[in-house]
């Protein structure tokens, strides 16, 4: 029988200890001690991270938002009716994230990126954090490429560029969504992927948008993220971030995206509801003080990336609803300060029959002509100036009885310019059509046309150019500029049409 020496045993033990590297895995589990109104308070979960996904016993998913000294405040991502006091909760170790892939194009999803259009599951191999940090200053390039909306008033006077954030603001029922949807329709064939995020909208309104996009063949390059009015506050708060994560996936794969948040007022309301239920201290006007950060960390994600990062872009069109045109309220001023300009839609202008009801006086683009094609730059400068002068003159002329010839001429010109800005819904115009429309107005060709016939004359002009003078459109499409040859063709077309009337 072989005897084992004590020093041999100790050397074996030492060896085992040296090689022992297996970590003890602690499962991060907690217990619900209070639940209600979509909020759960949980004991335990010592190692939970802020924004981590939690899984409840019944399969409900939650997000840990408040990490307090004695408990964790979590919001539930569904009704959570089966979550009860004493239920166990497991931390998943994952910060809130969603699957992303090209297969999302043409689909309608909820804020968890799960399909709700009945067309089956969406295959995805990659995921993205719902809240990703915005690109830094070095990662960006200044906005220099146009993103055409197809609306004459916007493209001529309040131009939007790829990577810009342009706020659409106005009272309810003034056509804010219509401007956004027209912009999506106008991206057809321009290699821009569109994401429309509906927050707290009626399901019927969202269905209407989907129908419009499907009829015009725009769903092929669009994704819709829908948090309907009956969704829990958590999902309405998350929807814009989900949309941004989907758009970012395309931006970082060197593509151009357009994202519409419709509307951020409802997101702020959902966030306030959530925050007050989590017992966060309310700040100004009973909003939690970080509602500014809620929107700024969302909108800062829009960018025009540098060439080193593949020069993709994400253009954001947030929508904010005002009460009685009050732009100086809390949320409108917040979002105005984060964006690069705003398109202000006015109820009075809408009711006076001007659609889109854009108030050119208060609307502004802080990117300006850097976001305009050369052709538009050439013809649009004069338009804004003449309209501004007309607005002043019109107010003045209401009190004057006899006006001199020059003033009457200027007023007549202004009325016709205002007519050419009117546009039917869901009929965005191409660049060459916009240029011909503006040129006809600012060069005085419409002065002889009666005001009520201006729009029909412009339709005639666009058709005439397309059928009889296709060279005009080709020249502008090829160069994005307005060469002398194109100008001459346009002059001839206008003269021929006016002589034939």
Automatic annotation (TrEMBL):
UniProt membrane topology term: Peripheral membrane protein
Record-level Gene Ontology MF annotations: ADP binding; ATP binding; proton-transporting ATP synthase activity, rotational mechanism
Location of the ATPase F1/V1/A1 complex alpha/beta subunit nucleotide-binding domain: 150-365
Coiled-coil residue spans: none
Catalytic activity: ATP + H2O + 4 H(+)(in) = ADP + phosphate + 5 H(+)(out)
Keyword hit for GTP-binding: no
Localization per Swiss-Prot or TrEMBL: Membrane; Plastid, Chloroplast thylakoid membrane
Ranges of residues in domain ATP synthase alpha subunit C-terminal: 372-496
Domain of life: Eukaryota
Keyword annotations of the record: ATP synthesis, ATP-binding, CF(1), Chloroplast, Hydrogen ion transport, Ion transport, Membrane, Nucleotide-binding, Plastid, Thylakoid, Translocase, Transport
Pfam family, one: ATP-synt_ab_C
GO cellular component: chloroplast thylakoid membrane; proton-transporting ATP synthase complex
UniProt site positions, description: Required for activity: 363
Residues the entry annotates as binding ATP: 170-177
Record-annotated ATPase F1/V1/A1 complex alpha/beta subunit N-terminal domain positions: 28-93
CDD domains: ATP-synt_F1_alpha_C, ATP-synt_F1_alpha_N, F1-ATPase_alpha_CD
Main location: membrane
EC assignment: 7.1.2.2
Quaternary structure and partners: F-type ATPases have 2 components, CF(1) - the catalytic core - and CF(0) - the membrane proton channel. CF(1) has five subunits: alpha(3), beta(3), gamma(1), delta(1), epsilon(1). CF(0) has four main subunits: a, b, b' and c.
UniProt family annotation: Belongs to the ATPase alpha/beta chains family.
Function of the protein: Produces ATP from ADP in the presence of a proton gradient across the membrane. The alpha chain is a regulatory subunit.
Protein name (database record): ATP synthase subunit alpha, chloroplastic
